[in-house]
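Why predict the complex rather than its parts? Because the way molecules touch one another can change local conformation, and only a joint prediction can capture that. The input here totals 1097 residues.
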Amino acid sequence: MTVRSPRTWAVGCMCALGVVLAAGCGSSSSSSSSPGVNATSITFGTHQPLTGPAAPGYSEIAPASKAFFEYLNSQGGINGRKIHLIYKDDEYNPSKTVTVVHQLVLQEKVFGIFEGLGTPTHTKVVGYLNTSKVPDIFVASGCPCWDNGTKQPYTFGWQPNYTIEGKILGQYIKQHFAGKKVGVFYQDDDFGNGGLTGLKYEVPASQIVSAQPYQPGGTNVAPQISALKAAGAQVLVDFTVPIYTALGQLTSFTLGYKPQLVVSNVGIDPTTVGALLKSFSKGKAGSELIEGAITDGYLPSTADLSNPWVALFKKVHDKYDAGAPFDGNVEYGMATAYTLAQSLQLAGKDLTRAKLVEAINESGSKLRGPGLVPFRYSKTVHGGYGGTEMGQIRGGKIVLFGGPLTTEPDESSAITPYTGTQPAPPSSGVSVP
Amino acid sequence: MTRFIDLTLNGISTGAIYAAVALALVIIWRSTRIVNFAQGGMLMFTTFIASALISAGVGYWLAFVVALASGFVLGAVVERLLMRHVMGKPPLNAVIVAFGLLILLEAVAGMIWGNTPRSFPPAFSIRGYSVGGTRLLFSPNDTFIVLVVLASALLLALLFRRTTLGLRMRAAAFAPEVARLLGVRVGGMLTLGWALASLMGSLAGVLVAPSVFVGPNQFDPILVFGFTAAVMGGLDSPAGAVIGGLLLGLALSYVGGYEGSELVTLAALVILLLVLMVRPQGLFSTPRERRV
Amino acid sequence: MTARIPHGLRSVAIALLAAVALFVASELLSEYNDLQLATGCYYFAALAGLTLLTGLSGQISLGHGALMAVGAYTTALLIGNEHWPLLGAILAGTAMAALVGLALGAAATRLRGPYLAGATLAFAVGLPALAEKYPGTFGGANGLTIEPPTPPSFLGSEFPLERWEAWVAGIGAVVVLLLAGNLRRSGMGRAFRAIRDDEIAASLCGYSVARVQLTAFVFSAACAGLGGAMLAVVLQLAAPGAFQLQLSLSLLTAIVVGGLGSLAGAAWGAAFLVLLPGWSNDIAHSFSLSTRVSSNLPLAIYGAVLIAVMLAWPTGIQGGVRAASSRLRRMRGRREATGQRGSDPIGRGQGPVASVPGSDAALSNQRGDQES
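Output of the joint prediction:
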């Protein structure tokens, strides 16, 4: 064995590799008070499932946000700054989320993380972001866990959390389907469990005859649907993502099981679900299997082109994001981007990370935009939208009715109607209170 | 009781798909001693081709045939261009190449057709048979799937056992030098083996596509269970593949129905381990001679 | 003449060299790169064990990602719920994975080749389901998050967390390097190879096949558990989404691409796993492509690279390094025994997926044979 043996070569190569990494990459500078921003631009980063089993639908969100930023940038940006969004693929794998977020914060030196997607993924970086004082704005998940301004001052939710939605849907069931047996088909994670919790705040336990979870990843949901049919559920509540809404409907069709569907807004976008059911409708609209389903929406329906916000988003989509279908995911991405732009406007020309957080704390609850209900933002509450409006699939489109409702995500708070009107979008840029 | 019947029927229809995938893996194993991890990617790709044709207005059965034909061609191409070069090398290399091909195919499918799953029409109605007022969890389409898989297994078994071609293919796998000496075109037989297996895989793809949707990652769970079924039944045995697939489908359906969906993958592990502890080479494998 | 150093000392010397290299690298690198170094180190721990298992003792495992999960969850639970100190929690994670490896290895003792592959694959897919079945303990789909490990106070309050993580993982990697290196050269290591090459002859010589294989399996499980424990510390998480089948397949890929059976190959494999995703992402984003193409391009590159490496260097990167260094040495006119074994065609007689026949002469373990 000589010193020049291949083993030593290999160890030497590893050392060389380390040195190459060191030479080729940035030095370890501590972050300044606000990296990622200068007089003419501001950069945000995000982690998204662009590939992998969680990618369907969700992979459209970040490109849609980016498209909306490009629209604003074409008008000069916000406070003279163009907004840039770097999005990285974490494949819905929490290990990759940690790596990618560290890379965004330490190497790309982004100003903040925007719209980080997913509960199992984002919960792994919340601690790091708050310890490092990096703004963690408008997490793309309805987990109530983002709503903690005291312990997680830099993290803000955006969409109405799953418990709020479950509660509002539950109240509708209590009022309109009293006495009917209720079954629940739900995803076995925060989304499904949160929705079920909220549902149970309103619907009496005796009325829920069966609750069947599914694991995302498998495709056989027949055991669950047949159990729900066997239990005699006349109302089926779906806390499902679109693929599983469609799978559930296919099995129901085979079984001749036709309950009244009540579906979370997460899983009912008619474009997406209709596309998945298209081949089974024999030429009729693919969404006929979900026709009449009750759902909810906190943004105007994408089918309602008479709504000025929808028209604006469609215009931006056609120009900057035409590769994607114009569906709920794209609307989500653009509406979130609008809220970020509003927050940046509020934070002012002299922008630091702390100032952005303060701006949302102080004035976030006054922001109005494409959302149908106000935000729940304060120093201690970082919840996001506080409610939603009931809707129904009619003619393959979501038609909202009854007016927006708001509540708090606990058992005792009442559900109250929101009577404010939705403002029109500004002709350019964003409008702030 | 209805529940038990429903779960049994569901087990049979899902089991038939696992059996089809298992058959594809068995064919390649028998003819080339390689476990084809890329099978899932290959069948996904050919199903995408069929889906694209159907969206463009081509009729279902024509698209079906095109899927099978493109599977045949794809299998032959993969064997000629890729697998041939790893045949004389450490066996794990073939596994890695297959794995690389799987990832490459999924990525390319995503680039061409996007990551959003799309709908695929069934060959026949999916409305369950009506028996005494209730609908069963079994439809004409499920009957078609089961019959096709059984027929394929039978045809393949006949091919391997009763025809000269099958004999040549088996000779090419077990004793290539001797087979060459006897005039068998070993290379051609290997290619044929891959082509046939890939055709079987494509068949599984179009059969299962209506219930899993067509997307780059949508076929992954089928692959895992198909491989489990193939191992359980014995990688040498087409009959083992079919029976293994059906048994696995039934077992997982019962577990999912009576115990809960979260235990399904764990149940697959336990069942497989139990089978392999009793018969380490699968249920229906022929005992291998120990060579000294 | 070449100086001959005793083997035990040689292992220690290599381990020290690696430790110094890692220390120097961690000081020079930026914080993010320290995180990558830490990641490489915990991958190395798992890969070292796996390459001994698969390369040396000829058992293919598609389940080592799940064994990493065992180590990670054990460590995360002990640190998070029971507030164990770092070292104790990591050791416990390693031990737990070794235990699970013992159970799995014992169940799989009669399995060979693709049957062992199938069983371990079912294990990889099935074990994370436990996290969903008992969400109260294991945190369900979200898994567990733990507090970041604080660097000891004598390092100062400004000591970067990422560098501390790199040190923790680096120490683990060096320990594995030492132990695995010794195991390779020990009698047990020779037993591994004997069983791999010819089970019947080995058992006629008195080796207990089952016991030797089980030893290899348990050792590799412990290494994977250590890797997983360090993963939990470095990333501060243990979640089912981090331990899917894809991880087990990546580990297997990495050891083959790096060079099967050699620890240097495991190091190459670790570097491959850490660096390739970043590079392929950079490549994908350097062109302005549609999202659909640019988000799938890194995966396409990964798949293409796997195929290319296997076709170009069938003995992996370390094999390629060896071949290059042999050529260099021959060019200098020094006679070297290149250890060409007789060609032994693949797939004849032996368990195909499991055995690594002697034609792969460039594997360093074989060189080790000759030099011992």
